[in-house]
Amino acid sequence: MGQSGFTHPYLPNSSFKVKGEMLKELGIESVDELYSDIPSEVRLNRDLNIPGPMSELEVFKFIKGILDENRNCLEMPVFLGAGCWPHYVPSLVRHIVSRSEFLTSYTPYQAEISQGMLQALFEYQSLICELTEMDVANASMYDWASALAEAALMAVRVTRRSRIVIPRIIHPERRLVLKTYTEPHGIEVVEVGFDSEKGFLDISSLSEVMSRDVAAVYVENPSYLGFVEVNVKAIGEIAHDYGALYIVGVDPISLGFLRAPGSYGADIVVGEGQPLGNPMNFGGPSLGIFACRDDRKLIRHMPGRIIGLTTTIDGSERGFVMALQTREQHIRREKATSNICTNEALCAVAAAVYLSLLGPSGLRSLCETILYNSHYAMRRLNEIPGVRAPLFDAPHFKEFVINVDGSKFSINELHRRLLKFNVHGGKVIKSEFPELGESALYCVTEMHDKSDIDRLIEAFKAILEVS
Fold first, then answer.
1. Which range in 53-62, 207-216, 303-312 is most confidently predicted, on average pLDDT?
2. Counting beta carbons within 10 angstroms of the beta carbon of residue 276, is it exposed (0 to 12), middle (13 to 18) or buried (19 or more)?
3. What pairs with residue 400 in β-bridges?
C-alpha cells in the first residue's frame, strides 16, 4: 500500500507524509527500527502476499471463497474434544445472551445501572456453587488453564508454601500455563505418575512427594484422557494430612452424574465452562470456573470478582453489588491478588441460562445420553482388529483414548484417511504421552447419534480393510 504510493482514506498512517512525521517524532529512520529487538531470522523479510486493492464486494467474495473451504461439526462428525467440546447450545441460550443489555455490557462497574448483569452473574455464581457443592464462586475466569494457575497462586499465598503437586496426566496446555504463572514466583510444580493399566494417579508416588512445603495437590476428574479418577477422596485426605489445599478440576457437565468435588473434600474447584451453553467458536472465548469453600482466608485471596446480594436500609428492595474485586485496577498494581483484568461475563450469562434451562434432572439426562453414546462408540471401536478402546481399564465419561499399535497405520495416517470419509477423528496424543504409543483422544457427546458413530466405525474398517 505504501510502496505503491496509495494512501488509504481511512488509514492515516498509510500516507508517506504522516508516516514520516511519526518516525521523526519517535527519533527513528524506518518502521523496521521499531522491531529491532526481533531477530532477523524469524522475520518475514518480504511483503505480505495480499491481493488488491479491491472493492468491498470483491473482498467479500474473496474471503467467502476461503471460508467455504472450512467444515464444521454440523457438516461432518467431529470426535475432537480435549478442552473444547461439541455440545448442543439451545436456541433460547443464544437468544437471551444476544439481548443488548447483556451483549453490549463490557463489565458492570456502575451497580446502579447494571442490576440486570449483576443479577445474572450472581445467578451464575449460585448455580456453580450448587453444581460443585462449594460455598463461594467468582464471576468467572478466562478459561480452565488460567483458573488452575490462579488457584495455585492462591494456595501458595494462603499456605505460605512453595510447591504444587499435579498428575502427569493433565492437559499439556494447562500444565504450560500453570508453569508460566508459577515460575516467576519460584514455585515448584511436581508431577506424579499414573497407573499404566488404569490411568489413575499413583497414590504411593503421591505420598512419596508430599511434605510440609506442598501448598496444594491438584487432580482432574474426569481426567484429561477421559477416565474417572476413583481415588479422589483418598487423594484429598493425603493433601489435608500434610496441611495442603486440595484443588479439583472438573468438566461441569459431568457433575450431572459424578459426585460434586465439595462432597469429597475439595478446597478449590476449577474447570471449563465452555460446555455450558457456549459454542466451540474456533476454540474461544472460554469460561473459567473458580469456586472455593467458605473460609475467610480463601475468599479474601480469591482472584477476580464476587457479586453479592444486599438490601436497602429498610429492607424493602434488594440490590446486587460487586462485593469483592481483587484485581490490579482496584489495588496497587503488584499488591493485587490477581492480574485478571476482566471476566468472561457474557459466557457466564450463557452458562447460567443453560444450567437454568436443564435443571438437575435435565443435566442428569444429558449425562446419561453422553454415557450411552460414548460407551457404544468404545465397544464398537474395540471390536475392530488392531484397535483398542478404551486404552485404560477404568470408568470413562465423554472422552477416551484409542490405541492402534496393532494396526498397519500410524495414528496420524489413520486420521488423515478418516478425513477422506468426511469424518474428523480425535486428538493425536502420542507426542504428549509417548508412553501410550499410537494413541488419540476421542470425544463423544449428545451431538453424536448412532449413525455418526456407525459412520466412524465403517470408516475405520474401510481404512484398515477389515470386513
1. 207-216
2. buried
3. 442
* CA 234 from centroid of its chain's CA atoms: 26
Place of cell 518480504: 46
Exposed e or buried b for every residue in 309-340, given b needs 16+ CB within 10 A? eeeeeeeeeeebbbebebbeeeeeeeebbbeb
Check: CB of residue 352 under 8 Å from CB of residue 345. no
- In this prediction, residue 200 has a pLDDT band, given cuts at 50, 70 and 90, of very high
Q: Within a 13 Å sphere around the CA of 79, how many CA atoms are in the beta-carbon half?
A: 30
Between CA 325 and CA 330 the distance in angstroms is 7
Q: What is the pTM of this model?
A: 0.88
Q: What is the separation, in whole angstroms, between the first and last Cα of the chain? A: 59
CA distance 130 to 373: 27
Single-letter amino acid code for the residue at 62: F
Domains of the chain plus CATH, in order, are 12-60 (no CATH), 91-355 (3.40.640.10), 359-464 (3.90.1150.10)
- Per-residue pLDDT reduced to its tens digit, 300-313: 889 888 999 998 88
Contacts of 13 (CB under 8 A, 6+ apart): 19, 22
pLDDT at position 268? 98
Contact status, residue 270 vs residue 247, Cβ threshold 8 Å: yes
Q: What confidence category does residue 329 fall into, taking pLDDT thresholds of 50, 70 and 90?
A: low
